[in-house]
Amino acid sequence: MSAPKISVIMPTYNSESFLRESIDSILNQTFKDFELIVIDDCSTDSSLKIIKEYKRKDNRIFFLKNDKNLGHNKTRNKGLKIAKGKYIAILDSDDISLEKRLEIQYAYLEKNPHIFLVGSSAIYIDENGKEVRRFRKYDDYKMLAWRLPKSCSIIHSAVMFRNTKEFWYNQKFEYAGDYHLYLDILDAGKNLTNLPPFLLRYRVHPLSVGAKNRRKQAECTHLINRRYKYLSDRISIFNKLKYLPKIFLFYLITFKEKRIKKNKTQWKELFEYK
To answer: 190: which of 110, 114, 116, 270 fits an S-S bond (Cβ 3.0–4.6 Å)?
Structure first.
């Protein structure tokens, strides 16, 4: 059997409320040549039962269960080691990929060999699936190379990247492992960008890892910012001056989309370190 074009990695831990929607969103993609690697990190709810149910129905699903709770980064690394696809796509078990996500990202990476990793714009939803906010991303890898060392401007559950077995999640940064991965890739001289289309419904709720561990996530992000601060120096003053008005204009254009559509205090806390 030939290797699939894409390996989708989905770690899960006590995600019974959202897991079916997440798995369905991959199985219902317009792009069909993929494997879905679901790794259960010792869930205590019915997540394991749900995964086994789907596994019996679709042979594109590959299932692993950790012997002990490893956390997201070690679990994702297990998925990366066994992934056979030309490209790796990430989806957390409470998020939803829109039906053309894999098709669009695959086509983009095939046509743009100078890009190593691509993300996308996202629709933020609450625990009930109701839209609360939008983030439209710009497609400019040079501008992103300047902005990324300052703040994490890529939504992790929307990324697809080349499966070269070169890059891994740093296990010392459990609460910002995705951000560390992006900067590792950037430091290696590879390009990352976002696609403007909305390809993900990104769920923000009080029980998510980021919401429950905001302080630790902020601390990890700060340490990573300091570690990779030198990357900003690679951008010339001329380019920085050129990018500033572009970012400001983009902010004005997308201002209305970014408005929080629920209680401001509640959602400001949840979005603070996203």
So the answer is: 116
d(CA 90, CA 167): 14
- The DSSP annotation for 59-110 comes to TTEEEEE-SS---HHHHHHHHHHH--SSEEEE--TT-EE-TTHHHHHHHHHH
Q: Which two tokens stand for residue 230?
A: 């030198």
Counted domains in the chain: 1
Asked if the structure places residue 1 within a domain, the reply is no
Q: Residue 97 falls within a domain, yes or no?
A: yes
- pTM comes to 0.90
Pairing of β 131-135 and β 191-203: unpaired
Phi (first) and psi of residue 167, to 5 degrees: -120, 140
Report yes or no on 58 lying in a domain: yes
Q: What is the CATH number of the domain that holds 236?
A: 3.90.550.10
Q: Residue 25 in contact with residue 96, Cβ under 8 Å?
A: yes
Distances (CA, A) of 117 to 96, 144, 161: 19, 12, 4
Contact by Cβ (8 Å): 16, 127: no
- Tens digits of per-residue pLDDT, 183-229? 999 999 999 999 999 999 999 876 665 555 677 888 888 889 889 98
Q: Give me the DSSP letters along 146-194.
A: HHTTTS--S-GGG-EEE--S-----TT-TTSHHHHHHHHHHHTT-EEEE
Is 151 among the domain residues? Answer: yes
Tokens at 119, concatenated: 């993300």
What is the spatial distance between Cα 145 and Cα 191, in angstroms, rounded to a whole number? 8
* Segments forming the whole domain that contains residue 23: 6-271
Question: What pLDDT is stored for residue 218 in this prediction?
Answer: 84
